[in-house]
Amino acid sequence: MEDSRLLAACCIACALAGCAAPPLRSDAPALAQPLQWQTPLPHNGSLTDLSQWWQGLGDPLLVQLVEAAQGASPSVASALSRVAQSRAATVQAAAALLPTLDGSASAVRGTTQVAMPVATTVQAALQASWEADLFGANRRAGEAAQARLESAQAQWHDARVAVAAEVAHRYFSQRACEQQAAITRLDADSRSRSSRLQELSSQAGSTAPASAGLARASAPEASSRAIHQRALCAQDSHALAALTGWPVTELQPRLAAAPLDLAPAAAITITSVPARALGQRPDLFSAQREVAAAAADAGVAEAQRYPRLGLSGSIGAARNRAGAASDNYTNWSIGPVTLSVPLFDGGRQAASVQAAQARYEEAVFLYQARARQAVREVEEALVNLQSTAARSDDASQADQGYRAWLRATEARFEGGLANQMELEETRRTALAAADALVALRRERIQAWIALYRAVGGGWEQPPATGP
Length: 467
Prior knowledge:
The protein has helices at 2-16, 53-56, 60-72, 74-95, 137-203, 209-244, 248-257, 274-278, 282-303, 348-414, 420-454; strands at 100-110, 119-132, 308-322, 325-340. It is an alpha+beta fold. A four-stranded antiparallel beta sheet has the order 1-2-3-4. The longest helix has 67 residues, at 137-203. 32% of the residues are buried.
């Protein structure tokens, strides 16, 4: 009779398995995207390995700085810790699908009755238990854990890309700052010479006192700009030291020995389809996996509303010795088979399902917003590249033209056909053009770095592993 009841309970539980809730969607919704970028692409339509882009710039110090910063970055370390935590969570989720097995052992020595010899009892046993995943709660929990692991791995890559971009930004800013510092120093020296000349001319009555006063004001103003520019360079150096963990005393000699080239030959190439370029963004992939995890969590909450079936069993052995007599015996059991059916919980489980569904919808919204932001970042980087490319030839021609004018004025001055004031004014005009060219080159390399960051820095979306 008892066996028939046990069998009937198992049959009822198996029948209830057919009432499982339909699985929720685990993939992020497709983002509606244009067929092509709104801005032209500075490439030949092929995809390069962006992860090696820094080496292609031909600056060994930059590569060393990027590697050092990635090793010293707290954000990278934190992301790596989250990967380890997520990997442990996947192990825990997978273990929930398997039976548990516990072992126990005990030993007792004493008397149980008056006038009986002292007895020693030794026991050992194994207890096993298992809960059938009738409605997929444990399986969906495993899917959520796996999705969060993939999300954490993508976030780790995104942290490394962000650190590399920040180091490159600071590095090239420092390189440009050094060039501009030299230009501002030359400008200050030129204005100082002009001030002295104007003062002499004013004393001789050849120049109005107002012109001499203007020259006297211009000289200290230029000197102040030069001092401020040097301070900006020092700030960039200290920022690089903080990012890399290198002492400033070690970093500054390396910076001094590094080239001041702001026109690297390497360029980023991406395809003309936005979906392919955005597929290289680890933060976007991470957001998509968070959507999948939220969907799986909703499935777990739904499955908690249905019956649960558990099975346990044990096997053991014991030895009892009292005086010269001893007994050995074993015992085993299968069961009980337990069926838990939720009847009334005041709406707690239904509320849990609603909350999980709301979190899923939030994750979808955040994914869509991040995708739109990714498109915007790529578009802005392309616009800046297009703008700097269109201005580069004009700036270079202006710089070359003013340099030629300065050389001609110097030749005229040496031949007595131009005075010192004319020479210094020409020199300052040429220096202003050189400063504008340096600023434009810095803006262009920063646009390349922004594009490197916007398209994911060489990260590749892992292939689908299947269900």
